Structures are given as C-alpha cells and as structure tokens.
Amino acid sequence: MSNKPLSNKPLSNKPLSNKPLSNKPLSNKILLIMRNTYAWHREHIETLERMGLEIHLATGVKQAAADGRFASVIPVPEELEGESMAAFCADEARRLGITTAITFYDSDIAVTSRANQLLGHTWPRPQADAISRDKKLQRTFLTEHALPAPRFAGVTGVEAGLKAAEDFSYPFIVKPSALAASIGVSLVRDRDELERALTDVARLAEEWGGYFPSDGPEIALIEEFLPGKEVTLDGVVVSGEFHLVGVTNKMQMPGPYFEEDFYTLPFRTPEEEPELVAVAEGIVAGLGVEHCLFNAEFRQDAQGRYRVVEFATRMSGGQNYRNLREVHGIDAVRLYAKAVLAGDDAGRRAAVLDGEVRRAATPRAATCIKFAYRTGTLVRNNPGDAYHSPYFRSYIPASKPGDRLRRAPEGWYEIAGSLAVAAPYRGVEDVDRVERIAAELDERLDVVMVPPVAVPPAVRGAA
Ligand SMILES: Nc1ncnc2c1ncn2[C@@H]1O[C@H](COP(=O)(O)OP(=O)(O)O)[C@@H](O)[C@H]1O
Ligand SMILES: [Mg+2]
Known about the structure:
Layout: E1 29-33, H1 42-50, E2 54-59, E3 72-75, H2 82-95, E4 101-102, H3 109-118, H4 126-132, H5 135-144, E5 152-155, H6 158-164, E6 172-176, E7 186-188, H7 191-207, E8 220-224, E9 230-238, E10 241-249, E11 263-265, H8 273-287, E12 292-300, E13 306-312, H9 320-328, H10 332-342, H11 346-350, E14 366-373, E15 376-382, E16 392-397, E17 404-405, E18 415-423, H12 429-443, E19 446-450, H13 457-462
Parallel strand pairs: 1-2, 1-4, 2-3
Antiparallel strand pairs: 5-8, 6-7, 6-8, 9-10, 9-12, 11-14, 12-13, 14-18, 15-17, 15-19, 16-18
Bound molecules: adenosine-5'-diphosphate (ADP) and magnesium ion.
Adenosine-5'-diphosphate binds at residues 150, 173, 175, 179-183, 185, 223-226, 230, 253, 258, 297, 299, 309-310.
C-alpha cells in the first residue's frame, strides 16, 4: 500500500482534572480519528452509522470533504503529532459539542486515548496503546507479567545486532520493532543473512520514519524462531473484562519472508481456545485497559505451546471485522463504540452488553480473506466476475492503477487488494474448502497487470 501511516510521538501522562460526565444525556455525536486512511474501514464506519451516530471525521485524507458519511470533516494539519495532535482533536471535539473520540487505526490509538483523557474521561490508557505500538515494549511487558513470549533482544543497529546474535542459535527472526503487515520480518540462517536483514531494517526505519516511535533507539528485535502453527485472536474489552470475538487461522509461512494471506474462520482447533483466551486475559489485566478492541497473534513453539508474537489495543484490520461478525454473530465494533460512549458512567457501562447477541454457540459460516498479490504495474483493479459468486463478500482495492507491485523482499505487502469470501460451515473441512474458493475467486478478480519486463543490458544500452 502506498499510504504511509503517520507517526505517534510519545504522549504526556499528566493526570487530569475530572469533570463528571454522568448526568448529561448520551450524545449521539462521535469524533472518528483516522489520520491517514479509512478505506479499509467501510464496514466499521457503517456500524457507527447504523447506531444512529453523527460521525465527525478528523483526518489528513484530502478527498474526505466530499464523503457524505460524515457530518463534518476536520482536516488534521500534517505537522501535528502525539500530544499536539491529541490537543487539537480534543479542542475540535469541544467546539463541535462532542465528548468522545474513537479510532480503528493502529497509529491513532494512543492519540485517540489521549484526546479522550483531555475530554475528561478517566477510562483511556494511552500507555497501553503505546506498548501496542512497539514490539520491544510488548516483549518487555510480556516478560514482566510472566506471559509466554519468544526469547528476544532489542538492538539499535547492525553492529549491536551482530553482537546480540551471539546469544541466539540460527535460524532466528529479525524484525523492525515498530512496523506492521510483516514488513521487514525475516528468518535468518547465518551471519550474512543476519547482516543483510539488519541493514534492511535500518533502511526501513529511515523510509518509514514516523511509524517508528521516535524515542526508541532499538529499531530491531532478534527473536527465537517459533516453528509452529500461527493464529490471531480478536476480542473486545468492556469495563476491564475481556470478551472473545474469535480466533482466526493464518497461513503458515516457513520463512525467510512472512507474507500475510489466507485468514480463515472458524478456528480449526477450538479445543485450544481456552489456552489462548487465558493469555489474552493476562495481557488485558496487565495493561489495565478499560474499554478497547484487542488483538493478539500467537505462534506455537517447538513444544506446541502458544507464545505471543504481538498484541494491540485494536482489532485485526480490514475484512476480519466482517468475517468475525458473520461467523460468530458478535459485533466487536458495535460493542466497542457502545463502551466508549458509556465512558466512565457506571450505569451506562453496565448496560453495554445488554441486548447484544452473544457469541454464537456454533460457527455460522466459514470465511477467508485472500490478499490479491500481483507483480508488475497495475492497470485495472475491480472485483470483476468474482462479484457474481455467491461466496463473494467484498473486495477492497489497496492500490491504484499505475502502482507498481512487488513481492518480498523487494516490496512488502504491495497487494492489489483484499478479497473476503464466505461459505456454509458444517465441519472443519469447510475451512479448507473456503480457502480453495478464495483462491479460485482471486483468479476471477478483474485485476489487470502489465508484467515486469526484464530488459536485457544490450537493449538498455541501445535505448
Ligand atoms: N518469533 C517468531 N517466530 C516465528 N515466526 C515469527 C516470529 N515473529 C514473527 N514471525 C512471523 O512474521 C510475521 C510478522 O511478524 P509480526 O511480529 O507479527 O510483525 P507485524 O507487526 O509486521 O505483523 C508473523 O505473523 C509470523 O508469521
Ligand atoms: Mg503481525
């Protein structure tokens, strides 16, 4: 994707004076903070609309002003970051008579929590969001709370990485301490590969500038390799209590690069759910979060025990939300929105779960997200014939005609788009089936590429 998420400077942790919010009537206005992009969150926004909320959007996206879903659009000046951004959002909210802010975007979670604090709420935990944004802080947090994580070392650059590697045995993982979508994550088998991987991370740290927390000198992590099965868990925390939404199967890649693809539901081995939920509850308790969406990725170690790869106070991106809803009959975004609107009000908080459909006892469908990986120059990018399939649910384009798409390690996560499909669920074999359906429909997308051409040196010289 071409849009680079903006940065998050560390936030002030100043205590706040607290005006009681209680006896005011519940506002139907909400400030949605999505600085860089909200194209992946159409369904999330639709849920807010269905709840009858008047949505005011704070964003840097230029075309937003023409978007009828929003009651108003507040352009966010590019230079704002961290505390200044939070103060700006809180001021704009007050001006509009809005008491609550919400976000679905990774790099805005800490700012949104801080804005909510400035609006007088005591429930937000910007420090928990800051931990979510930094893998080194996550690793330290997990160790401190005796939660299962891979062994790791944070390193400041290539030199330090080569030194730290003496305590690890090959192969192991090298990754940026603050990026997403598996960008820059690799499995290294020897010293040469390690040096190359660390050099790549250092370059990514330069390129992605703001996405890395600016005060963290440790740009990379070295980690024990977890060879087993990989899953991702989503939940919602209401008044400090964790509620499972679902566990998604992820494609297992052997390395050296880890492209994301084939997210399927329901969980193939539901008997493992309690082990994962117990860890999620441990993280939530340790973070002390009150209201948030929650995601944790796990991978099994050589003994088959699940260890935390990463966690965050937000949910899995894109169509995972709709798939989780379709399969488990629970609407995470709706619960989260109800929770933040209830805020600190005890009575309202107690009522957040009232009238909500509980998680379905058995899965209602099998679903799959397939990323449309392509290489070359994108010419056309639409769902095409796939749209007419009964299995088709949605296609979100992630690139525009004219964009060049490459595979790892030249390009990371440069996908044409994301395809969501669903099929009936009767048994675990339907998870395999829905994966095959997704792969077939991917081929029927109207995604047209001009393939990359290898130009022979002689021709190049003649030109
Ligand atoms: N310690 C590890 N052992 C095995 N695989 C890993 C490890 N860390 C990361 N991976 C693989 O790399 C992917 C991306 O790593 P992750 O830490 O989740 O970064 P990102 O924030 O980019 O998603 C994971 O989904 C997993 O497949
Ligand atoms: Mg990840």
